[in-house]
Each structure stands twice: as structure tokens, then as C-alpha cells.
Amino acid sequence: MILIDGKKTSSEIKNEIATRVAEIKSEGGKTPHLAAVLVGNDGASQTYVGAKVKACEEVGFKSTLVRLEETVSEAELLQVVEDINNNPDIDGLIVQLPLPKHISVDKVTNKIRPEKDVDGFTPANVGRMTLNWPAYVAATPYGIVELLKRYNIETSGKHCVVIGRSHIVGSPMSILMARNGYPGNATVTLTHSRTKNLSEITKTADILIVAIGKPEFVTGDMVKPGAVVIDVGIHRIEDSSKKSGFRLIGDVKFDEVAPLASAITPVPGGVGPMTIAALLYNTLQSAEKKVFG
Ligand code: GUN
């Protein structure tokens, strides 16, 4: 069984990005610049945005964090996005989700200039990805694609089963795995909460991508021996034996599934660290005008 090491792979990607940034700077080019907008005080969002800002520093990017009160109006937030859209120094813009209930995620997402949408959430980028055009691909699916590539996992002709149809992970993942390219050319089954006989389907998966958001949902009896298993879930559960009082688990029951799998991502240290590397990569692509020209 191969343990797919997202922590190591993401460090390698960050090193590659840092090398390129140093080159750009030495040639007198502009420093890539990511802006993050964080609304309110959600603990997880603060942690994620903090990690993104820290990663920018590590690779030599500039970053700007715009913090807004939970009570900010939709109009005010849309204006902040518009101002960043029009700021020529900023290459990438992310608005951390979730947003407070009084703000429309769709309206805010649609306000982001596709050329700066390094999260790949806008209709323009989702459409471009679907058409197999150059696009910013959302961080989690992009990170998974990169892991499959860097671990030379064969995807052509394989049966790939995706569990979960979210806009951020399951849906784009199914499109990427089916597209004509590598990774891709898989026969894809996208499953979700209404799927019947789920374990009958997962047992036929050569590649199983789990993004359902339920702790240890996938058990050993749902997995074909030799399958490649990618676990997107991350959940905190109480554990008094840990100093922090909790430990992290995924959507896959690792101890049961790992012995069966030919390759598997752990939690933590699998898909999670790759998402930040993907965001940095998209921001570098934007600074170098590689996607929209
Ligand atoms: N919230 C959870 N994941 C993400 C992400 O990838 N991007 C943004 N902007 N918000 C998130």
C-alpha cells in the first residue's frame, strides 16, 4: 500500500513556486499578490485564511487580508470585491466561505473577475474547466489531480467513483476524471445522498474519491481490494489522550480501508495540504497571465 503524502507533495510544489517567484523578482517582475476577504469570526475560516496568508509569505507572494464584520451588508462586500477587481497590483482574490446568511454567495462569487478567481468558483471558470479550456480549477479538485499525477496513478479506462456532488469538490472532480487527458479518461460514476445501493457501486471502483462530509463513512466492506482511495473529509473528534483534546479523521475509516487499498491519502496530511499549494499555483498562473492570456 502506498501512502499518498500530501504534506510532502505540497511542500515540493511550494518550493517550485518559491523558485519561480525568486526568478520573477530577479528579472524585475511584479511580485504575485493574493487578496483574501474574510467576513465574521468563524473559527475554521480564520484558521484556513491564516494558513493561506502564511503560505503566501513562505513562497514570497504579497498578501492582503481584508477583514469585515459579520454584519457587513451585501452591497458593502460587493464593493470590496469590485475594488479588488480594479486593483492592478492584485492577481488573485478569494472570498472565504461560508458567508453570513444575509449575503448571497452566488452574487458575491459572480462579482469576482474570472481573471482573478483563483478559487475557480465563478461560472466562467467552471465553464472553462468543463470545456477543457485553460481555467482556474478549484483548490481541492486541483490538489487531487496533482496528487494522482505526481504518484503516477493510472486513470485511463479505470472506474472512478466519486461520493458527493458539491460544487467545490465532487462535481468538478467528476468532470476532471472524465475529461480527455491525464489524469482523466476514467469512466466516472458520481454518487450522492439519493444514490441507491451505494456500496455495490463503490465496490466496483478502481479509484474512489470520497467527499461526503461524514466521519468514517467509507468502511472496508465498501472498497475493492487494490483500489486507490482519496479521502477529502476532515473532521475534529474529541480525544482526551491528545494534548489538544481532539484528533482529525476523514470520510474514510482509514484503519479498515488502508490495508485493502493500493494507495490511499491519510487525514491529516493527504488532500488538505494540497489545497493551499493549488491556490498558490493558481495565483502564480494569474500573475504570469497563463490562464486568460
Ligand atoms: N471554504 C472552504 N473551502 C474553501 C475554499 O477553497 N475557498 C474559499 N474561498 N472558501 C472555502
UniProtKB/TrEMBL annotation:
The alphabetized UniProt keywords are: Amino-acid biosynthesis, Histidine biosynthesis, Hydrolase, Methionine biosynthesis, Multifunctional enzyme, NADP, One-carbon metabolism, Oxidoreductase, Purine biosynthesis
Q: Which Pfam families match?
A: THF_DHG_CYH, THF_DHG_CYH_C
Per the database record, which ranges form the Tetrahydrofolate dehydrogenase/cyclohydrolase catalytic domain?
4-119
Question: Per the record, what are the reactions this protein catalyses?
Answer: (6R)-5,10-methylene-5,6,7,8-tetrahydrofolate + NADP(+) = (6R)-5,10-methenyltetrahydrofolate + NADPH; (6R)-5,10-methenyltetrahydrofolate + H2O = (6R)-10-formyltetrahydrofolate + H(+)
Gene Ontology terms: cellular component: cytosol
Instruction: Copy the pathway line from the protein's UniProt record.
Output: One-carbon metabolism; tetrahydrofolate interconversion
Quote the CDD domains the UniProt record gives.
Answer: NAD_bind_m-THF_DH_Cyclohyd
Task: Detail which positions bind NADP(+).
Answer: G164, R165, S166, I234
Q: Which GO terms describe its molecular function?
A: methenyltetrahydrofolate cyclohydrolase activity; methylenetetrahydrofolate dehydrogenase (NADP+) activity
Q: Name one GO biological process term.
A: purine nucleotide biosynthetic process
Q: Which InterPro entries match?
A: Aminoacid_DH-like_N_sf, NAD(P)-bd_dom_sf, THF_DH/CycHdrlase, THF_DH/CycHdrlase_cat_dom, THF_DH/CycHdrlase_CS, THF_DH/CycHdrlase_NAD-bd_dom
Boundaries of every Tetrahydrofolate dehydrogenase/cyclohydrolase NAD(P)-binding domain copy: 139-290
| Its EC number(s) | 1.5.1.5, 3.5.4.9
Give the matching PANTHER family: C-1-TETRAHYDROFOLATE SYNTHASE, CYTOPLASMIC (PTHR48099:SF5), C-1-TETRAHYDROFOLATE SYNTHASE, CYTOPLASMIC-RELATED (PTHR48099)
Q: How does it assemble?
A: Homodimer.
- Give the function comment from the record: Catalyzes the oxidation of 5,10-methylenetetrahydrofolate to 5,10-methenyltetrahydrofolate and then the hydrolysis of 5,10-methenyltetrahydrofolate to 10-formyltetrahydrofolate.
Identify its protein family: Belongs to the tetrahydrofolate dehydrogenase/cyclohydrolase family.
The entry's protein name is Bifunctional protein FolD
State the species of origin: Algoriphagus boseongensis
Gene field: folD
